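Predict the 3D structure for this chain.
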Amino acid sequence: MKHKLILTILAVLAVTMIAIYMTIASGGNWDYILPRRGMKVLAMVITASTIGISTVIFQTMTNNRILTPSIMGMDSLYMLLQTALIFIVGSGSALIMNRNLNFVVSVLLMMVFAMLLYKLLFKKEGSNLFFLLLLGLIFGTFFSSISTFMQVLIDPNEFLMIQDRMFASFNNVSADLVWVALGCIAVTVIWIWKDLKYLDVLSLGRDQALNLGVDYERVVRKLFLVTAVFVAISTALVGPILFLGLLVANVTYEVMKTYRHAYLMAASALISIIAVIGGQLLVERVFSFTTTLSVIVNFIGGVYFLYLLLRERS
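Done. Predicted structure below.
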């Protein structure tokens, strides 16, 4: 009952935040404002939900509350893809100018990378998830180095285009991209739905899950791919937001204080929606677009990350 009450309060707060964003400073131009703000809110809800839920699933698989899916190198891979496309085919190419095509190519390549990374490691017996994370960390550093190298060589005007994609932005989200992202998420959720019940057992650890009869390798492989898909969709939709998942997941644990993932995933999605829409309100109404949402999230997330490290140490 307590958890359902907290979820209800979070849902009311999220709806209130959406209502404020949709109606503030409208000036009565509802026909013009509502469709545009509505699409932006839908993009924020999709991004916030996928980041929050994927981080909770990822931390359950790794049994570590200071890790996020970005450690797999997805953010770095996204920037490498955008830089390489402009470096090789130029900023006037359809792969850059057509946002739908760019979104589909980015998501597919990031999913292929995640699957190759997993198959490369888990084709041998005895491999573990932490070796996979270490490999992802190395690949992420490698991708960042190559991106920086190519950014130094390209035309300054094209570098400005890359710079725009380094920070998450909801200002120019295409309506077509939102519907494509929703379709991908729906297919992914249907595919993983029956295995979500194992998350509570996985939180006990690998040995306990095996003793309780869970097909650990199969379930973790599917959850890993779902995490990769969610991160790929959110990153390709608006850009990288490094610390949002870490911030939202740990606030969720503090608020819910339960091991049941049905509550944790719902709460993480709602808290993430409140954080993203609240942050976007700050960007638009307080800072007048002089900064971006990712800068605010990374600043707060960085401070919170240091707090978590100091708390674990003590």
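The chain has one domain: 18-238.
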